[in-house]
Design brief:
It contains 16 helices and 17 strands. It is of the alpha/beta class and 465 residues long. It has three domains: 129 residues, MutM-like, N-terminal (N-terminal domain of MutM-like DNA repair proteins), CATH 3.20.190; 130 residues, Helicase, Ruva Protein, domain 3, CATH 1.10.8.50; 128 residues, 3-Layer(aba) Sandwich (Rossmann fold). It has a five-stranded parallel beta sheet with strand order 12-15-11-16-17, sandwiched between helices. Strands 1-6-7-5 form a four-stranded antiparallel beta sheet, covered by helices on one side. Helix 11 packs across helix 12. The radius of gyration is 29 Å and the shape is elongated. The two termini are 47 Å apart. Bound molecules: zinc ion. Zinc ion binds next to loops.
Length: 465
């Protein structure tokens, strides 16, 4: 979708090619795109000369002779094509074709047909409801207190507010993600959590981001032909948008994608924390290190417990997962309409590739469920999440702090001897758990080789009041 920088670029290109041209003929191939009586639109435009072009927000304004004005919005896929030769014209998505007296052409082209053209006058156009209700452009905010008072009344996500053209005009999905990334604001932060200073920073960064994009000719220039001779290269400079799963350019954590008010949103969960989210402690450690005991302790101390194993257990009960599991293993993976966990354990002990594939399948679903729980949890609550593969699954990025429970082989062997799998198999299952890497990443390391009482004394020190 063309955003402010793209529309600015189109305006500049069109200015260089159609200024002072006089309209000799108007063909409309799709009537709904014209928001006037069709014959009025066609007849009035005859013999009018294009005097100037203006951009307001994402609207393109054509100033014509005799005080007439065309207001145009490209919406999703609108484009302008300029042709010097009739042979090139009439693309099947061309909706309106202007023929100039010098036998050059301007075509409004729109595969999605959501765009619009409205003929009006110099005195009237700024009063059109679509233009009248536009908020200031970031580069033109004169009254921050007024803008802040609007923000304070809204509890919807800040990203939705930035996309609302009555608040600020000209910010679309791409640049909203960029601005929030650069200001380290979580896209779902309720708007009324943003301070006046943060708002000022957001607007300042918005100006920088949009100016840089304009300078580079608009980032989507390659996907549409805005006329001639423009080579946009802003794509390479995007920090957030379109970079899902790629490392954050600040902290190297993989960027995540979610939907905010229905719009795809890329952000860094580590750099962009939501101040409205609860405190989250991630608990991990090798097999038999006492993760469940620790989780219990935190539960008894007021934390909301989340168990990774329990999430997986619930996932396994969802029939939707049975098909992909059968594809990965075979029919035996389902026993009496539920997943045979012992069968899975048995197979993946001997098959590292299958284990990897299983994790690829399960981890995103666990993440989804985990985020759903966080969303339902209030700011003043605390969450403790116990996850054997917390770091491997990349869920640590959502945690405020992480706890690594350390255990020696002797204790591990003792504890495992009481479980249903053989000690050897249990330890094998734990292969691939990267002790050194995980210890490096953890906020706290607590060794748990003795009694439960001793563990609790150590855990008490990291309880958050
Ligand atoms: Zn980051």
């Amino acid at each position: 979708m063309p955003e402010l920088p793209e529309v600015e670029t189109i305006k500049n290109i069109l200015k260089s090619v159609i200024l002072h041209k006089t309209i000799a003929k108007v063909d409309v191939f799709y009537e709904k795109v014209v928001k006037n009586d069709l014959s009025f639109f066609k007849n009035t435009l005859l013999n009018k000369t294009i005097l100037d072009l203006e951009r307001i927000g994402k609207y393109l304004i054509f100033h014509l002779s005799e005080g007439f004005v065309i207001v145009s919005h490209l919406r999703m896929e609108g484009k302008y094509f300029y042709y010097q030769n009739q042979k090139e014209t009439i693309n099947k998505h061309g909706l309106v074709l202007f023929t100039f007296t010098d036998q050059t052409y301007l075509e409004y082209n729109d595969t999605r047909r959501f765009g619009m053209l409205k003929l009006t006058t110099k005195d009237e156009y700024k009063n059109l409801p679509c233009l009248k209700k536009l908020g200031p452009e970031p580069s033109n905010v004169l009254d921050f207190n007024k803008l802040f008072s609007i923000l304070k009344r809204k509890s919807i996500p800040i990203k939705a507010v930035l996309l609302d053209q009555t608040f600020l005009s000209g910010i679309g999905n791409i640049y909203a993600d960029e601005i929030l990334f650069k200001t380290k604001v979580h896209p779902e932060t309720p708007a009324n959590f943003i301070s006046l200073n943060k708002l000022k920073e957001i607007v300042k960064v918005a100006v920088e981001v949009l100016d840089e994009a304009i300078l580079n000719g608009g980032s989507t220039i390659r996907s549409y032909k805005a006329g001639i001779g423009i080579d946009g290269n802003f794509q390479t400079k995007l920090y957030a948008y379109g970079r899902e799963n790629q490392p954050c350019l600040n902290c190297s954590s993989p960027l995540k994608k979610m939907f905010v008010s229905g719009r795809g949103t890329t952000y860094c969960p580590k750099c962009q924390k939501n101040p409205n989210s609860p405190y989250i402690l991630g608990i991990t450690g090798p097999i038999a290190s006492g993760k469940s005991s620790a989780l219990n302790y935190f539960k008894e101390n007021g934390y909301i417990p989340i168990s990774g194993d329990e999430i997986v257990h619930k996932l396994y009960q969802d029939p939707k997962l049975h098909k992909p599991l059968i594809r990965l293993f075979n029919e035996s993976v389902i026993k009496e309409n539920s997943v045979d966990k012992a069968f899975i354990a048995h197979v993946i002990i001997g098959d590292g590739h299958k284990k990897y594939k299983l994790e690829q399948l399960i981890h995103p679903l666990v993440e989804k469920r985990f985020l759903e729980i966080i969303k339902k949890t209030k700011k003043d609550e605390k969450i403790a999440v116990e996850m054997p593969l917390l770091f491997e699954a990349g869920l640590d990025v959502f945690c405020d702090e992480t706890l690594y429970l350390d255990v020696n082989l002797k204790t591990q062997t003792e504890r495992l001897s009481k479980r249903f799998l053989s000690v050897k198999d249990s330890l094998k299952l734990n292969q691939g758990f990267n002790v050194q890497e995980n210890k490096k990443k953890a906020t706290y390391i607590i060794s748990n080789n003795n009694s439960l009482e001793e563990l609790y004394i150590k855990l008490a020190k990291i309880i958050r009041k």
